DNA sequence: AGCGGCGTTGTCATCGATGTCAAGGCAGCG
DNA sequence: CGCTGCCTTGACATCGATGACAACGCCGCT
């Protein structure tokens, strides 16, 4: 029994050529049933398994897809990874994962390169880099689907949430509940989704005629601990916020324990992304919910379609988000009275119209050119 | 400019053989500095990247490690995955991930096989299968490190937490706080860690002279929702538990919202594994904490060492766990008085001795033969 | 001058699969 | 019987890298 059984070993036992064994293994029609049965017996007897590395080299492409995310431990990306892996597995593809970290966006191109030299059939990338020109050459032979944001400098398939709109909805929700000092808590600005959510925050402020106060913007939190410290500073300022838009799960995991631990559950919170126990806390946390599993699956499907039809036009899929009111986002600022905010003179639209506008934003999924 | 630059292309430009280019790429000493510089220039000019699939085929092993876990979305495994990927990346290795799911332990061997045919250099496996004999042959060429439990039927490297001891500590903690109706909430019994934690639970009961009541054992929860339903049944029974040992994070994510949502925060809880917000809830959740990052890193290091020394003896690394009292596990049962439990006549050891005993369990890490 | 040793370089086989295309066998038709 | 077409099979090159080892040149020593 040789250490590794090859086509040749099977060919000897079955008294055919290795090519015929290959035909049987790959379901090629050009084999007689008699020969086929004989080869199958030999395959079973020897426990033959094709060497997929050899096949990949010959074919020029591995049956593996690459996934690049910021962090595999991040709950959002963990669930996205899981969805991608499951979709790939259903197609007989393996998944090679790689993380970029949150310190050096330029690592993205190195990480992607390390997947390309392994001949991955395709890539799903949650981008952090400023410029995706590095992918221009590779994309002729390796399809790429971007998740969470559009690439810069190239046209590619993508699966997105509208971060700007979501940031605007989250912030608008707080403003609609009377808050005039709304803070933004976010990760590094080199993270494109942070920038978009911040832009949405600012657009909501502007839309309500509120001045943007940069002392209410705390970005750069690379961990839950840093988010916690940043929130502490926000709340300890001269004119502290009465509400906080926490622009990703990681920041929320720093902010919420702080508020609960320091008895500041009076501060209104909208969290971008749901997280465990958010609805069990008192008050339960209002969230912008977008499902990483939906994103992961959509990205994988998009990639499979691209593999089948390399020359089709690039397509962007926008997946829906929704605001889930649970309590923390509906808290009123100190001194505010119940009911519609009477100070709001710039926008006479009734509340129900605004709710509908939000529902429109929250439900809309579709295609973006 | 050819589509793909090979050693041969570089060799032509540099006027050397492909073998010399290979020597330069691999840092072989047998190249003159003059030749080396000339080749480097050609490499840069052509943008050459070695084809790692070709190398893998020739060498007989890919520079990829495989990781097999139950679910990539599970927070515990997500963090373990992240730690493994980072450790691998530091070594220039890629990571191929695969999930088994929680329904069919036998899928493990199929999943492992799909990694083996891709010539992974080594495997890290969080096992679910009943028998690891399927790995006996492969292990001669592909090192395996098991995480979380020892394999069945083969001797292999492993990185473990002592699930039985941890289950015993968790349950003992509840008993020490006066509970006599302690329930066990767990996943499927085909999951070996569930079985060990249940055994620990039973051992704690026995140690305190308490009869095991099977109506207090709820296993089979495949999701947080199912855990929630199981907990509902436990609490709705004729003689409901006053305390619950939730034997994994997933069960806790079902149980804790139930308790909070139904006003049953009087039920004492110890959760195996920490989770986000556990310490922000009221009462904060007492947990058995073991760090998946420590496990992941230890597993990766063990695998790297195995790759360097394939013939060394198998080794098991036991990583520490600790009980983190936060409130939920220290709740007293209804009608209990404060202070030491006067009903405990079988064990006259004072509380401080027992605390020390637990600290001993919680701190101990080391090697197991 | 001749020999031996050492360092560098190159040739060629190898890894294990698949693609390309020729060859052989058989059936049908004139 | 000879020719043509179709189907099956096999030979051999290919994928792109590395391992094994021979060949060559140079230097130092006798």
Give the helix/strand layout:
The structure is a homodimer of 369-residue chains.
Chain A (H helix, E strand, L loop, with lengths): L6 H8 L3 H8 L7 H14 L5 H8 L4 E6 L5 H16 L3 E6 L7 H10 L5 E4 L18 E4 L9 E4 L2 H14 L5 E4 L6 H16 L9 E2 L5 H12 L7 E4 L2 H13 L6 E5 L13 E4 L2 H17 L7 E3 L3 E3 L26 H13 L2 E3 L1
Parallel strand pairs in A: 1-2, 1-3, 3-4, 4-5, 5-11, 6-7, 6-8, 8-9, 9-10
Antiparallel strand pairs in A: 10-12, 11-13
Chain B binds a DNA duplex (30 and 30 nucleotides) through helix 2 and helix 4.
How would you describe what is shown here?
The structure is a homodimer of 369-residue chains. Chain A has 369 residues and is an alpha/beta fold. Chain A has 3 domains: 1-18 and 45-59, no CATH class; 60-159 and 294-318, Response regulator (Rossmann fold); 163-290 and 321-368, Rossmann fold. Helix content of chain A is 40%, strand content 14%. Chain A contains 12 helices and 13 strands. Chain A has helices spanning 7-14, 18-25, 33-46, 52-59, 75-90, 107-116, 163-176, 192-207, 224-235, 249-261, 292-308, 351-363, and strands at 64-69, 94-99, 122-125, 144-147, 157-160, 182-185, 217-218, 243-246, 268-272, 286-289, 316-318, 322-324, 366-368. In chain A, strand 6, helix 8 and strand 7 form a beta-alpha-beta unit. In chain A, helix 1 (7-14) crosses helix 2 (18-25) and helix 1 (7-14) packs across helix 3. Chain A starts with 6 loop residues before the first helix and ends with a strand. The model of chain A is unreliable at 339-369 (pLDDT under 50). At the A-B interface, helix 4, helix 5, strand 2, helix 6 and helix 10 of A face helix 4, helix 5, strand 2, helix 6 and helix 10 of B. Strand 2 of chain A pairs antiparallel with strand 2 of chain B. Chain B binds a DNA duplex (30 and 30 nucleotides) through residues 4, 6-8, 16-20, 22-23, 25-26, 29-32, 35, 50-60.
């Amino acid at each position: 029994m040789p250490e590794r059984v090859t086509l040749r070993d099977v060919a000897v036992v079955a008294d055919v050529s290795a090519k015929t064994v290959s035909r049987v293994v790959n379901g090629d029609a050009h084999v007689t049933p008699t020969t086929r049965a004989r080869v199958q017996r030999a395959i079973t007897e020897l426990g033959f398994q094709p060497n997929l590395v050899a096949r990949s080299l010959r074919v020029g492409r591995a049956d593996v897809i690459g996934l690049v995310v910021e962090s595999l431990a991040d709950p959002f990306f963990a669930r996205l990874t899981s969805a991608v892996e499951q979709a790939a597995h259903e197609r007989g593809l393996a998944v090679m994962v790689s993380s970029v970290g949150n310190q050096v966006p330029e690592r993205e191109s190195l990480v992607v390169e390390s997947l390309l030299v392994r001949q991955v059939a395709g890539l799903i990338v949650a981008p952090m880099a400023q410029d995706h020109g590095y992918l221009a050459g590779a994309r002729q032979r390796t399809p790429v689907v971007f998740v969470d944001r559009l690439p810069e400098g190239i046209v590619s398939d993508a699966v997105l949430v509208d971060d700007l709109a979501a940031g605007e909805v989250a912030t608008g929700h707080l403003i609609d509940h009377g808050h005039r000092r709304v803070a933004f808590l976010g990760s590094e600005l080199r993270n494109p989704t942070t920038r978009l959510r911040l832009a949405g925050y600012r657009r909501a402020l502007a839309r309500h005629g509120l001045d943007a106060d940069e002392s209410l913007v705390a970005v750069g939190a690379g961990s839950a601990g840093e988010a916690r410290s940043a929130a502490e500073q926000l709340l300890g300022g001269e004119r502290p916020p009465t509400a906080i838009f926490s622009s990703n799960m990681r920041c929320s995991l720093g902010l919420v324990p702080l508020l609960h631990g320091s008895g500041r559950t009076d501060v209104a919170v909208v969290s971008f992304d749901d997280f465990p126990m958010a609805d069990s806390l008192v008050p339960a946390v209002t969230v912008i919910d977008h499902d990483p599993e939906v994103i992961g699956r959509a990205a994988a499907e998009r990639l499979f379609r691209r593999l089948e039809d390399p020359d089709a036009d690039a397509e962007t899929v926008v997946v829906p988000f929704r605001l889930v009111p649970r309590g923390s986002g509906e808290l009123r600022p100190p001194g505010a009275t119940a009911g519609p905010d009477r100070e709001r003179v710039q926008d006479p639209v009734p509340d129900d119209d605004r709710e509908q506008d939000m529902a429109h934003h929250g439900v809309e999924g579709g295609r973006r050119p």
